[in-house]
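Late entry, written up from scratch paper. The run itself happened at the end of the previous shift, but nothing got recorded in the book at the time, so transcribing now.
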Amino acid sequence: MKTLIVHAHPEPRSLNGSLKDRAVSTLEAAGHEVRVSDLYAMNWKAVVDAADYGPEASNPLKVARDSGRAFDAGTLTPDVRAEQEKLLWADTVIFQFPLWWYSMPAILKGWVDRVFTFHFAYGVGEHNETKYGERYGEGTLAGRRALLSVTVGGLESHYSSRGINGPIDDLLFPIQHGILYYPGLEVLPPFVLHGTDRMTEADYPEVAKAWEERLLTLESTEPIAFRRQNFGDYEIPSLHLKEGLEPAGRTGFGLHVRG
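Output as recorded:
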């Protein structure tokens, strides 16, 4: 298995840094190939601008169109092209980051904004009476898996169905469904550590063991059963879930998960 780890934490000695290092050592010891994109160490540029698209940038800038033109022409900046090549190389992509303000760190969102260009991560496939492009289960990254490894400062009860912060699955839905599943990645259930602000060094061995167990079962773990866009569950072109497919009483984000 070939695994890309996209790591987003500014402190190498942080818990996130330790989990990233443990993932590398565990997977390599099991015979897997591993590459790491350590965004802070790379001094990753987090903002999209005309410089990303070279001669394909228009004035005024049109990010979607221009990014697709640059992708097609091969004129995206070398750092962006390198990350796209890593994604195409990988069988599995692990995203290691802390939950900051209910989402991913800005540098990681900037990685997505710049790397997931038009004609690479979206805007692919044909549109017709039965198909609305290749996305949500299809697309450039189909056949690969993704896993979020997330550290959360708050207690698990704060992120439950009645918790004040909302269910963790709902908070991660825009990332797992809207960013990862959209271009075709199969998304595994996340590895979430709660209460990390209170964690001590004495707690780490148990955490490391649990993380190793998840890593060694990446290939056998069933992905989240998100509904595929073009396979009969949605009306086209409205993309509304067809009546009667939802389990009784289910609403919101859960409608888009089978079973």
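The mean pLDDT is 96.
(Scratch paper discarded after transcription.)
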